[in-house]
Amino acid sequence: MWIFLVKFFRDLGESKGQFVSVLAVVIIGVMFYTGLYSALEDFSGAGDKYFKEYRLGDLWCSVYRAPEGVVERIESISGVKMAAGRVVQDVRIYVEDRNVMVRLISMPDQKSDTVNDIMLTYGSYFSSEKANQCIISDKFFKANHLSIGQTIEPIINGERVKLTVIGAAKSPEYTYEIREATELIPDPQKFGVVYVKKSFLQSALDYKGYINDISVLLDQDGDVKKVKEEMKRVLDQYGVISTVERKDQTSFNMFNTDAKALESLSAIFPMLFFIASAVIIYITMTRMIENQRTLMGVLKAFGYNNWQIMLHYQTYPFLVGILGSITGSVIGVFFIGKGMLGIFNMLYDIPTGDTAVHLRLVLPASLMALFFCMLAGYNACKKELRLVPAESMRPKPPASGKRALLESFRLFWECINFSWKIIFRNLFRYKKRSVMTSIGIIFSMALLLVALSVRSSMGYLMSVQYEDIQKFDMKISFSKIMSTDELNYMKSIDHVVSVEPILETGMEISSGWQKKDIGIMALENGSKLYGVYDRKGNPAILPPEGILLPERLMAALRLDSGDQVYLRSYYPGKNEEKNKKAVIVKGVTSQFIGQSGICSIDFLDYLLGEGVVTNAAHIKLEGLQFEKEVTDQLKGVVAVSTIQSKAEVVVNTEKTLKSMNSIILFMLLGASILAIAVIYNITNINIFERRRELATLSVLGFTEGELKSLVFNENYFVSAFGVLAGMPLGRFLAELVIQTQANDNMQLPTILKPSSYLTAAIMVMLFTAMTNFLIRNKITSINMVESLKSAE
């Protein structure tokens, strides 16, 4: 077998560029596979362990005010393993003269196992020495440069209350630390969680002996639906604000959605590269074997059997698979996986610890790479090996000449020059090769469109959400429901252009046997600070009666415009079944963030019977430069519990989204390598096969530029075909990738503008031009005499 090894390295030396280009595609495929799956295992595994160890709840129920004793009644429900009652309140706090919102959450005075427990990262748990101690969420603690022993002063019921920081902690409940579902990206400088002794917070909020939030952990066989209904029955008299299952809880929902999206990407993208590498190897091996057809016949005549010859030619794809697997696995596991996990850690507060090196991922990635490579090599060999030596030693008869399909279109055929006629005849002569060549371009185009679509979709979301929908500059929330007349003072503040009241509340919507807890946002008629749009993106008219529902909710409840639904308030005394209100669905709204029904503030009086009231407001300023001045004046308003700056939210969101550019760039790099590798290989084969033809044309007077154009223009044509064929696949993959990231809190629209298609097409053509430039000397270096004698 030594002679086969010598021959293999000689063949390899003659086609180094082709070998490297195929190897690069395999490396990218294995790198995608091991990198994405490594990040998935670290991210998902750490999260699942964290949720279990610190007892993330299965159900949350917020009420207006309930006695602590109700927790024992909840724990007695069949299927409930543990329940915890607590007090939760959002308040304002000033850190380094910045207006910040924090969520105060009560914890047991003494350390004990509880639902939604916390993991201390700094400091210690509460001691019995002082009542006013607090533990800060880890990311908020770091982002605001807090220290152990420092005093913070949240504003509770209009008064500054001093709390001493004794520690920092992570919580499974706030791995994605945002205040509400309408926020897109966590901003630890502007929102955090502060854990306080239960006895102290109850006293500060006048909740002695009472709670307003119950978290429940179920047994392994507990039925979440049955427990949820029983909890509502027990708590109805205390005014249920909302009931949330774990799958719908904001942090877990975002975590679970991103884990599923990562899993989908791990399954899709590596497969594109494995298939492309198989196609390239198949074409390369087919041409290599056809060109060595006579030699194979000689080897058979010397007594070498088919199995020995097959093993020799399988050395090429085997070496590609092995080297690609080793190199791709090292880069994927040690660099790509760690980098992806770092991006997720910017968003999620999950203790990943010292992540393991997932070497077990190397085996499936290597097996897949080897399978595709060896299968391509086998298919390329099997046809020639069936021939008897005498037939194999004869040169392969040339493909039969016949009229190309385009020749039937005489007007077109007569208008093109001789060079293009040669190009088209060659393409139609080797249709199979031409189609297989375009597969790599099609995949490359699809990857480019996916990357550009994600970027465009995020840009579109930012534009629509923060320019068309949220037209206000500031949003304030009140600690109580109040009359809209009480907003007159805010309208008189300098630099305030307008103030619009809103009322946000939770309700139960039911249609037949289907029920769902939703949020309701009531706006002023003719609201100018909050835009409402239908599914086509056109402004929707706020109906004086009835309600508008988001498209996803309509689909979940199988509703159409004009259908009747029932809404039940959670306010105490108004939450009985008999107080359900029949409401007509007047239309569909397009919402990308959150999932709330929208109605007029006057119509909400019909639903609640509280008059025209508000618990929040949107504010428009003369200019953003006056934001701090207005904020300072709002500090003195006792009823204001939180102040949110839209400009700060936008800046933080854009800053975080920039970190996603690395993933997009990685996809663009993969697409470029794929396109260049495919074109480089096929052009090499094309030149080698046509060297006698090119030499003949050169002797007949074709210039160097004309000879290059025969090959290069063929590449451009194949690339153009791949671009057109890759557009629908790219659209499909873009929709698939974006849909896997959708959840009840956020859904990206799939945006592929004409400019995206044009950009992707230009990039593919640039890759083609680069490849043509790299291979230009292959044509001019053809030995004319040797090529013309090649048939002898």
Describe the protein's architecture and organization.
This protein is α+β, with helices and mostly antiparallel strands and 792 residues long. The chain is built from 25 helices and 22 strands. The strands form four sheets. Strands 14, 15, 16, 17, 18, 19, 20, 21 and 22 form a nine-stranded mixed beta sheet that branches. A hairpin with a 2-residue loop joins strand 15 and strand 16 (514-523). Helix 2 (16-53) packs across helix 9 and helix 9 runs antiparallel to helix 10.
**Sheet bearing the most strands, described?**
9 strands, mixed
Task: Give the N-to-C terminal Cα separation.
Answer: 30 Å
Strand-residue proportion:
15-25%
* Helix fraction bin: 40-55%
Seen as an oligomer or otherwise, the chain set is single chain
Stretches with pLDDT under 50, minimum 5 residues: none
Number of strands: 22
* General form: elongated
Tally of alpha and pi helices: 25
Radius of gyration: 34 Å
Mean of pLDDT: 82
Summarize the structure.
51% of the residues lie in helices and 20% in strands. The protein contains 25 helices and 22 strands.
Features:
single chain; 792 residues; alpha+beta; 9-stranded mixed β-sheet; 7-stranded mixed β-sheet; 51% helix
